[in-house]
Amino acid sequence: MLATWLYVSTSTLGQNADDEIASIWSIARVRNPELGLTGVLLFSGLHFAQFLEGSDAELKRMKTSICRDKRHTGLLTLQTHPTEQRRYARWALAYAGRATAIDRVLSDALRGHDGRELLDYMDRFVADIC
Ligand SMILES: Cc1cc2nc3c(=O)[nH]c(=O)nc-3n(C[C@H](O)[C@H](O)[C@H](O)COP(=O)(O)O)c2cc1C
To answer: Domain 3-129 carries which CATH code?
Structure first.
């Protein structure tokens, strides 16, 4: 059984956001495979949304790192459902750059505490970058 984690958060990044995210992404592309984690990161300029999946212990370690990261705040967990099968098995961390147009989806998830539309969006986003 695999653990999963879907959250949204508010960015604290300023003008250097794209550089910071490039740095997060380059760390994730090494560290996520080492920990057996796969997932997706979305960034709208104002908010982050991330889905991660892997073993319970390794996901907990990553949660600890991400939760104390000062590059975002107000982190809201939307889902932590256990699963048999990976959703994003091909991706250490799928990310396709800042996407301002999706801020409505991220803001709605933050307000409505509901991750369903967000996961559908992530599925479509990953299908597009395949
Ligand atoms: C929104 C966001 C998502 C992140 N996602 C990952 C990730 O998937 N993998 C990763 O290794 N680090 C990720 N990081 C960076 C970690 O928070 C942390 O800085 C990094 O893993 C180094 O861990 P450490 O501070 O415990 O040494 C993310 C940071 C932010 C702000």
So the answer is: 3.30.70.100
